[in-house]
Amino acid sequence: MKIRSKKLFICLIFFYFFSNIEGNSKEVPSSFADLAEKLMPSVVNISTTQTVVTNVNPFPFEFPPGSPFEDMFKEFGTPQKRKASALGSGFIIDAKGIVITNNHVIKGAEDIIVRVDGDKEYKAKILGADPLSDVAVLKIDSDENFIPVKFGDSDKARIGDWVIAIGNPFGLGGTVTSGIISARNRDLGMNRYEDFIQTDASINVGNSGGPLFNMNGEVIGINTAILGQAGSIGIGFAIPSNSAKKVIDQLIEFGETKRGWLGVRIQIVTKEIADVEKLDKPRGALVASVAENSPSDKAGIKAGDIILEFNGVLINEMKELPKIVAQTEVGKTVEVKVWRNEKEISKKIKLGRLETSEDFKVKKPKETKDTEINSLKINVRPIEKKDIEERGLTKNTKGLVITKISNDSPINYLQVGNIIIEAQKKAIKTIGDLELAVKAALKSSEKTLLLVIYNNQNQRRYIGVKLN
Prior knowledge:
Structural class: alpha+beta
Number of helices: 10
CATH topology of the largest domain: Thrombin, subunit H
CATH class of the largest domain: Mainly Beta
Number of domains: 4
Distance between the termini: 73 Å
Mean pLDDT: 85
Low-confidence stretches: 17-25, 359-367
Helix content: 10-25%
């Protein structure tokens, strides 16, 4: 009797276990046919043309590069105009013919043709485009009604979810591929606002601008990039719909984007920097410099502050801050919490607009005689008046210009031309100042040297160095 009860108990456990797994898992689709058939009329093929002008050499030979005859005879080249074409994909989001695609698909286009449902062709115009997010909005030149698709919530998309991509790879319109979400929050280094969805659904040349659908037929991404030039290798990337939609709404309403702007240059908080600043762990975004008269400057944000929270959102990694700021309304006053002098303080900042901020242009410095700093295995020289003038620095700038960096230097990731302006939170005016700071760091228990530099773009950066 006891044995029979024990067997029954074990059977009940197995039944509960497997039924629970089955209840919590989603079925593998037996076919995507019904979904694809429903969505195909909303996905469009895009072809563009633009005029390219080239000079044709009238001579049956070419002059070697650098030859004085090259410049002398270049004017005899005959300008030739030719039409260049490009292919891409897109999708309709409004019955009036509003189409979404990538900016790089229509960039420089003189004529844009949108093919709907495989055979109907229409001309289209650009309502707005944003190179930073690589999103563009088109309007089909027609009074007809079209079948739109809806955006889904890309934040709810999970790794392992099924997705399908529909597009125009290699000009083969109406192509459907399927796969899963392979990863989230991918950063390829293409722009500051990257937060790609990675998928193994086949994405090829011509798929750019096409939609990535979930199993509810909602657009959760805009296919935009692939790894490699030969074709799909099972790694494609899509712009999440949630971030794209904010850009799209602005392009439709204003014809341009209006991103929030703090006016700071930031960098990663390393373990060494967190240790020096007595922060519990590496987190937040370190303010390397503050633009003059920017919203942050007016609010009292300083270089060296670590931004821990923006408008109620914790900043765990540096790359999170630009995305959150950009998506915040221009002119809104937000609370920013920063770490300064080993304590947390709050600042109120009224955001400016990124698109109206100034960009700084600088020239590379010239090398002159230098002095070797043995402990850091670098060569430096005091900054000179010509450096300040050529690079557009403030007149009272002091520091040491790095002129040589050994491969085995503890700061071999820096570049020649970088200017050391602080060490251990003290201004560096002479080579002796730097040597004293290094000696003091070597004598400390942490053996950590905190440097502040100007890189070759005149951006202020904090560097935490572990010395041996």
